Lysosome-associated membrane glycoprotein 2 (Sciurus vulgaris), 412 residues
Amino acid sequence: MVYFRLSPVSGSGLLLLCLVLGADRSYALELNLTDSANATCLYAKWQMNFTITYETTNKTYRTVNISDVSTVRDEGSTCGDDQNGPRIVIHFGSGFSWIVNFTKNAPDYLIDTISFSYNTNDHTIFPDAEHKGNITIDKRVALKIPLNDIFRCKSLLTIEKNNVTQHFWNVLVQAFVQSGTVSTKEYLCDEDKHSTTVAPIIHTTVPSPTTTPTPTEKPKVGTYSVSNGSNTCLLATMGLQLNVTQDKVSSIININPNTTGVTGSCHPQTAQLRLNSSIIKYLDFVFAVKNENRFYLKEVNVSMNLVNGSVFSIANNNLSYWDAPLGSSYMCNKEQTVSVSGTFQINTFDLRVQPFNVMEGKYSTAEECSADSDLNFLIPVAVGVALGFLIIVVFISYMIGRRKSRTGYQSV
């Protein structure tokens, strides 16, 4: 008989940790699967969340983040037998399920396939979904691990398929536990082996309610692009600075474009730019078309690891920034602030974006932000004022000289 338990992890370490981290919920799951002899046959511990993009009835696209797995339950996890390998099967929330299949190929075993299912009939999570019903994403992983080792990956692992992104981190798993004892010999993921990037924290402080920490330097300006097939469909150039407040502690993080990954997607009515790094699981900029002739930044989603070990996640799909005509780009050289929430803002520097109608991989004519336009207006005005003042001075000097000349003639 197979025994399986899920229970809160205490300080001594039981089986399931339901720990609220940061502004959003992120749960560490720990599973200890036993066989009929009550010996451990499969052990796993991990954290995860999901991002799903779906089409709405008005032909736009929305993105939802799923990170609350507090209602997790087991229905079918097994140690396996001679015909079938071990598997983890969990269900959570409203219609979500996640399944991992393992296969044995001595002297190794494989994390074989991962399946994720969700149901767009849930109007609360997927309002105005165009396509209703249960959707399953199957992804072949085929990750090979030595039988006597426990796989460990603290770094972020990402699986993307069919508009669904799965994120995993702080992973420990051994699918074929030998003699009921979990191995202490670790097999590291490539990301942990090669992870040398230091989190780019510029400044962290405990501010007063009205103060914000000041960064020591401006962020580097990076150029990012998204392709649809062989054609570039989205361009973005900007320096990015993230402002995070959690538990009255404010952090400013400069994004280094040299260590930042870029993905995204382009659709007729929406376009997405996604950035990720060693600490940022994802930073999404979602653009939308309005009135069939303009575009704007409609949505920002972020999930990132903070220096205290917690996960900070925020999403806002009701923004209105960077508005410009379709067929053009939006540009703002001066510093701008995108206020995503009371606890998360993005400062941009030397910004230029074009999420639609990119031709030959180049920016179209830019529509400038009001701050830049004001600057361009003030320069000729200042020159005009100076020139006018100079003319007045010359005129006054001329009149004084003429008067003196007349005075000199009459005295002769």
User: Anything to note?
Assistant: Helices lie at 190-193, 370-410. Residues 1-26, 196-215, 407-412 have pLDDT under 50 and may be disordered. The radius of gyration is 29 Å. DSSP finds two helices and 29 strands in the chain.
